[in-house]
Amino acid sequence: MQVFSSVAEVPDDFGPTAVTVGKFDGVHTGHRAVIDALRELGRERDLTPTVITFDRHPAEVLDPERCPEYLLSPLQKLEKLEESGVDATLVLPFDRAFSQRPPEDFVATVLVGALNARLVLVGSDFRYGAKGSGTAETLAASGAQHGFEVHLVDDVLQGAGRRASSSWVREALVAGNIREAAEILGYLPSVRSEVVPGERRGRELGFPTANLKPGLEGMIPADGVYAGWLTVDGATYPAAISVGNNPTFEGVPARQVEAYVLDQDFDLYGKTVTVAFAEQLRGMVKFNSVNDLIEQLGDDVRDTRRALGVS
Length: 311
Known about the structure:
By secondary structure, the protein is an alpha/beta fold. The protein has two domains: 2-158, Rossmann fold (3-Layer(aba) Sandwich), CATH 3.40.50; 189-308, Elongation Factor Tu (Ef-tu), domain 3. The protein contains ten helices and 16 strands. It has helices at residues 29-45, 58-62, 74-84, 96-99, 103-114, 136-146, 166-174, 178-185, 201-204, 290-308; strands at 2-4, 17-21, 48-54, 88-92, 117-122, 127-128, 134-135, 149-152, 157-158, 162-163, 190-196, 210-212, 224-232, 235-244, 256-261, 272-282. The chain has a six-stranded parallel sheet, with helices on both faces. Strands 11-12-15-14-13-16 form a six-stranded antiparallel barrel. The radius of gyration is 22 Å and the shape is elongated.
């Protein structure tokens, strides 16, 4: 997949293209339904399937206090977009000046000038340009003028008919509802970071853990213990995962993610790992004694094996 970090990076001869536009945080089932349609229509018309997205959530600039937590880092988002099969992604820097550009400028500069768009796929609630003044209807009118067609894409509905959305995924993760989040995403939610030395309490208890460096890529789910997977150097292992501040011990930094890899004892320090969550096993609990904690950790490992279907 080609990645362009600005309009200026797009080659003059790029395209013609089939384009869709959005934040694409999570690259969930709704996003991928749009991308699937983009790829199919692009193939039919010999157009290059291209995604336009942004280097940050617009709310980070326009309303920082209400900016939602990111489901994916910018790099993770690009990786998921590449997995979805698009040929190119244009990542537009979103700043206040960009937010104040009129809709016509976005059409002329980005869609027509840079990408030579012939087909643009959007939802019926699509907004663009200063104060969201551009709509699907105004985009269609611009398309008639500039020679591109606008195709409206239906929402993807999940569960009880609710629209698949990034906000719904966040709700599920905050509640620790991993199965619901995974259904909307179409894959297991995960975080990624470097393994760093911890307090070594897990090793002393017989359950050595990989402690992830703060500032992880991806959204951390609710505090608790999870069954999941740890991937490092291309290999994936079953793991019991703890999220929280370990209330049994004092002085532990808040919101740690640590993973106990089943049946392995290897040195992961300094390595970047991905920890994927499959099922929440229990909430975070303060234990009265270390022995009680050790007993529960043994139960957690057995529950992890059951949840993951590993012996």
